[in-house]
Amino acid sequence: MPGRKSAVFRPGWLQIGFALALSLISTMEAGACPLCYEAARQLMTEGVRLDAADRAVLAKRDVGDGALRVVAVVKGEATIGDKVAEPIADYSDATGAQEASLLIASQSAPQWTSLGAAPLIYADWLRQIVATREIAGDRPKRPWPLTTATADVLSYEGWRQRVKLVLPYLEDPNPLAARLAWGELARAPYRAMDVARSQIDAAKVTTWIDDPKLGPRRAAYLMLLGFVGGPEGARRLDARLETALAAHETKDLAALIAADLELAGPSRVDWIEAGIFADRSRTMSEIEAALLALNVLGDANGSVPRERVIEAYRDFIRQRPAMAGFVAPQLADWNYWDAAPDYSALVKTNATMDPASQMAIGLYLRRAAEAGIVIQ
Length: 376
What we know:
It is a single chain. The protein is built from 16 helices and five strands. By secondary structure, the chain is an alpha+beta fold. Residues 1-30 and 143-151 have low confidence and may be disordered.
């Protein structure tokens, strides 16, 4: 294809950025699934803002005096019938007196913020979402620095319950409910997604994937299809993946590969090794997508065992020595040190390598030594 760049090594910020991204992703097990780039790009989803707020209520205009009053309490201290006297950011009366709005407020803010229209029937669902923060389980360490988006972290069981709660509201007729449901699905840890199995119709998910208007949400729905697709979903994913790679189309490719792996299992890793790592026509973006998908599946250590992902990473080191360090951060975080001799030998050859890859290899070897690994 004229003008298409192959994956021949070219030192630059693209490679450096990817190596750093893999390093950061290796610390994100409890955070948003890195396959959903669009969700990660958002400054705040509705779910994040709801979690971070101290108070959340549904309020609507009183037909008698026209005052905006609380009609349901979702979170924090408030009383039904209270008048909302403080200023409200992003609020609109366009929905009319019969429609309630979801308002949130924090102690540090002197005003409320409207997240959008939400009929009263959604109040209990919103309360259940808020309650998932309190579900017992192994609560991960809070990310640093603490911000509005990271101040509260759900446990693994809390995330499983939250995913289960939002599944019926994906593409709900109410725009706020639909945005909230998609956002929570997109930012859920990948390994919590298995709760979706048998909980949602695969044909419906496929319809969303094929809808051009839902393009920004496609990565999350591809990821979901990997858990609910079944044999027909696998066939559809195979066809979509073949088309994408033939055209070197990389948008949502990582999510597509991950979904394909989730449904097909470890045997599909052979194809990645032969069709992407060993294929010199593959672009850097295609390689990045394959590595990211393997990283997420290896972290989950479920349908594709981590041991098989490690084998693929060892193959990548052999196939792509200039980029060999791209997988070093993840191997180190998995406490896998058997790649140390390969990396040590590669360094001694003085081969041309991506600067970020070289740095990652150095850090891996240092951590291996700290772990007591003797490197000849």
